[in-house]
TrEMBL record:
GO biological process, one term: lipid catabolic process
Keyword Calcium: no
Organism from which the protein derives: Gordonia soli NBRC 108243
Source lineage: Bacteria, Bacillati, Actinomycetota, Actinomycetes, Mycobacteriales
Keyword Lipoprotein: no
Name by which UniProt lists this protein: Putative lipase
Length: 407
């Protein structure tokens, strides 16, 4: 559910009230309910670009706010960034668009990737907080090949309300509507090729988009999806990261799910200690680095009244187990080829649940391939075995997407 900070280039900015101005991220009182509609937009310089000069490498970026939808179908304002590449598309047909789902960056609004496109690192000494944007590697690889890129911030990250981390329905919708929004910004044809890509949290979002595309966005011409280390079975992921450096990511999930499933709140109130409730409250405003440094290697047994792990508490409450089960990816069929990645020794995303996702999709007749990373265990629990496969699969995943987009 997280990749530690992988950054292209150097850059550091200290956040100021002006830099963190909320005006862009506060939705207007009314906006179009049409999914993928552009609510507002503004130029967004990329790393090392000089403001005011056109056609700089690797492309022209536009920060956007677009319409997506909450779990109940009501319209939601989501932010993100569209980048039109300087390089030409030399493949077949119209220039394609790849939607990138970021990996875990945190739950605080300051962590939104669209706030960090000109510099990949921002420090807010007032919180304090360190925000990191590590999408540059994959983004630039696509842009070099003339592929348009749109990166979503997801629902509630940057914009008002809680970020509904690993919510299957809302993550998938944010990705699909980002594709529609990018086509609007580029004035591209509605049937221009589209693909989805992501790793970890982003892999789950990409996988959700892949299987929701037929029903939620049949208008999109989806060509392919790459989903690296997707958290397809949330229950198994919670067990894996409990006690790890990023155990606080469980708090992100609990906070997001509680916001959409009110029945969880009385369960949490009765089952968590004052310390546990404080952890949940604090992580809701943190970036992943802040959370790891604050709560790394704790166990959820330290947060519960009975001393049980959160996974055991969930299992005791059918209402809570049902909520977790509803986040399971693999119940719907993707309408285009999918490449999955799973690492045998991933210390965040269990390999077995990625393999199960592959099998679930194949049983429905989907075109699914899977690549495996065999990196040996390196300091288990420190997230090294989750971060390294991201780097190792950059080229294979890019080649897969480019091949399908050019078919």
């Amino acid at each position: 559910m997280v990749v530690t900070g992988v950054v292209v280039g150097a850059g550091l900015t200290v956040a100021t009230p002006a830099a963190q101005a909320a005006d862009f991220y506060t939705p207007p009182a009314s906006f179009s309910k049409e999914p993928g509609s552009i609510i507002r937009s503004q130029p967004s310089p990329l790393l090392l670009q000089i403001p005011g000069i056109k056609n700089q490498w690797p492309g022209t970026a536009t920060r956007i706010m677009y319409t997506s939808s909450y779990q109940d179908g009501k319209p939601a304002a989501v932010t993100g960034t569209v980048v039109e590449p300087t390089a030409p598309w030399r493949g077949k047909g119209a220039r394609p668009t790849v939607v990138l789902g970021p990996g875990t960056v945190g739950q605080g609004d300051q962590c939104a990737g669209s706030k960090l496109m000109s510099f990949p690192l921002a420090i807010d000494p007032l919180k304090p907080s360190i925000a990191v944007n590590y999408t540059a590697l994959e983004m630039n690889l696509m842009l070099l090949n003339g592929v348009r890129v749109v990166i979503t911030d997801y629902i509630g990250l940057g914009t008002p309300g809680i970020h509904t981390y690993v919510n299957r329905r809302e993550s998938g919708a944010a990705m699909l509507d980002a594709a529609r929004a990018a086509l609007h910004v580029a004035k591209a044809k509605k049937d221009a090729p589209v693909a989805f890509s992501g790793y970890s949290q982003g892999g789950g979002a990409a996988a959700s988009a892949a299987e929701m595309a037929s029903t939620y966005a049949p208008d999109l011409n989806v060509k392919a999806t790459y989903a690296g280390a997707p958290p397809a079975d949330l229950g198994k992921v919670i067990d894996r990261i409990d006690g790890s450096f990023i155990v606080g990511g469980i708090g992100y999930a609990i906070n997001g799910l509680t916001a959409r499933y009110p029945a969880l709140k009385p369960i949490l109130d009765s089952e968590t200690t004052a310390n546990g409730r404080q952890v949940l409250q604090r992580v809701a405003t943190q970036c992943i680095g802040d959370t790891a440094l604050s709560f790394g290697f704790q166990r959820t047994t330290q947060w519960t009244r009975t001393g049980e792990s959160l996974s055991k508490v969930i299992a005791r409450h059918p209402e809570a187990q049902k909520v977790v089960d509803e986040q399971r990816i693999g119940k719907l069929k993707p309408n285009a080829p999918v490449l999955l990645e799973g690492s045998f020794n991933d210390d965040v995303i269990p390999y077995g649940q990625v393999r199960t996702l592959r099998d679930d999709w194949r049983a429905q007749g989907a075109n699914v391939r899977m690549i495996h990373d065999g990196t040996p265990p390196i300091f288990p629990g420190l997230v090294v075995n989750h971060a390294l496969p991201l780097l190792g699969t950059l080229l294979p995943s890019a080649n897969f997407l480019l091949s399908e987009l050019n078919s």
